[in-house]
Specification:
Elements lengths: L1 H11 L9 H13 L5 E2 L5 E5 L5 E7 L4 E7 L5 E6 L10 E7 L2 E7 L24 E2 L5 H6 L7 E4 L4 E2 L4 E4 L2 H17 L7 E7 L7 H10 L3 E9 L20 E5 L7 H14 L4 E4 L5 H6 L4 E10 L6 E4 H24 L1
Parallel strand pairs: 3-12, 3-13, 13-16, 14-15
Antiparallel strand pairs: 1-2, 2-12, 4-5, 4-9, 6-7, 6-9, 7-8, 10-11, 11-17, 14-16, 16-17
Amino acid sequence: MIELKEYLEEMIRIPGVSGFEDDIRNYIRGKIEDKGLKAVEDNLGNLMVELGDAGPLVIFVAHMDELGLIVTKLESDGSLRIRKVGGIDDRTLVGRVVEIKTQKGIVSGVIGIKPPHLMTDMEEAKKVVRWQDLRVDIGTRSRKHTERLGVRVLDPMVIKKDITYITKDLICARGIDDRGGCAILLDALEQLKDKRLPIRVTLVWSVQEEIGLRGARAVAFNLRPEYVFAVDTMTTTDAPMTEEVYEKVMVGGGPALRMFDSEAIASPKLRKLVEQVARAAKLPLQYGTGGGATDGAAMQDTGCLMMPLGIVMRYTHSPTEVASILDMENMVKLIVKIADRLAKDHKRG
């Protein structure tokens, strides 16, 4: 599945802060059209591909937005004040290089911190600097200079991304959440597009997941699916410094059924179905609980059967998220097999 890895690496590098998903949406639309299919965009910016025209509606959804920052004020010294978009830990912001998307192109900056050499109270070094107190330095010395670079209030920015393979299989980068899911859906689409399934299968790349599952909620209320599978990352419990509160969920151990989180309880009927599918296909399967939420929680409000399919990942919402390419490949296989099974069940009546 060389394409999956290429999709993932390319999409990680494309910015798409919640509410500013244009670039990543255009990339995904292009890949869909390359397959000879039509992508449908709704008013919120969700992107969808519809396969089949009869039978129960099955949705596989992954969110294309990512965590980031926006410019909230241009200071007189040229620096920028910021606001977080999504659940970013303040500890991960200090000392980072950022890229700001402006009307004139990308502007680079740094989120600096007062060095200990200038601290008069060394207790200051022990404190986490709040996002409200941070500034982005883009190398200018006046507001006018900053404005000439094209920077404006509300411009989005992301922490500059690097992709590292810490093993042949384990990718480390910012934004695997949920560009991993987006890549999986593109790869699954290639295998599903020529199947004659007696059900309707819709693949959704959603917006604004990181700020409240907003895109998925709109899709669910408009389409009223019967089955929903949310393909998203799931925080692993196998990383160093992880407390022994939860059962181990291992990177490289296969897709995980995210049975319980902060917003939803997965459907027991779908647990049974996915277990049968994985067993028949000899695919590894794990189970997990934890915090956070997926697009599946918002869609479940319409009364559908819902199951989050987790890409097991270490260091969630940090610049060094770590996940397994093999897990993602097995997730593609699982999705295709689930679609086959639902089609078979429907045909059987």
